[in-house]
Amino acid sequence: MSNHVTPTGLVGFGKQANCTLDLCSAEYSVFHYVPSLAANSVFLALFVASGLIHLYQGVRSKQWFYMSAAVLGCVTEVIGYAGRIELHKNPFDFTDFLIQIVCLTIGPAFFSASIYFTLTKIVNALGPEHSRFNAKWYYWGFIPCDVLSIVLQAAGGGLSSGGKGNNGVDVSLAGLAFQVFTLCVFVILVADYMLRWKRNGTTALTIRFKLFATLLSLAIIFILARSAYRIDELSDGYNGSIFHDQTSFIVLEGVLISIATFLLNLTHPSYTFDEQGQLIGGHFHKEISPSRSSV
Question: Residue 246 pLDDT > 80, yes or no?
Answer without folding.
Answer: yes
